[in-house]
Please model this.
Amino acid sequence: MAFELPKLNYSHSALAAKGMCEETLDIHYGKHHQAYVTALNGFVAADASLAGKSLEDIVKSSAAAGGPLFNNAGQIWNHNMYWLSLSPTGGGIPGKLETKINEDFGSVAAFKEAFKQAGITQFGSGWAWLILGNDGKLKITKSPNAGSPLASGEGKTLMVVDVWEHAYYVDFRNRRPDFLQNWLDNLANYEYAASQL
Ligand code: MN3
Model:
């Protein structure tokens, strides 16, 4: 069975009032993410050893070798998580998650600053993640290109932001810090993150 784009929980125009326009979704979801899905389906069709494997299995089993199979599978998984990390009603932190953030980062402001810095300092293309570490504490990590906590085994993903230029150039041009601040304040789906705790 071929891999498919996930169905989004919102329309392509639903995030515009929060700073992510319809064109960004059209290109990012409809072109970039679709291209990774098409490429991975090509690899699966050409390699019987991949038949029936889940996306997670392919990401984990190809992570050490890297290369095009990992890059495409990883990018599909990362984007699946990214769409879940956006919401037209984003920005509000549920009490359960806020309590955990205060325990592990000291304050919501410190958490947001650390997340923003992770995204800013990811040189070139990549991702910034909120994960539940294997020690049970919240952690912020970053990864280049198609890397992820799933691939590295660092912990369970709660939320992720894409800092590839294609994620923010239509809306924020070169201003990655402003994109990240807006995501943290207005778009981040903390409800989803809390549901994964
Ligand atoms: Mn992307």
Observations:
- Residues 28, 32, 79, 162, 164, 166-167 surround manganese (III) ion (CB under 6 Å).
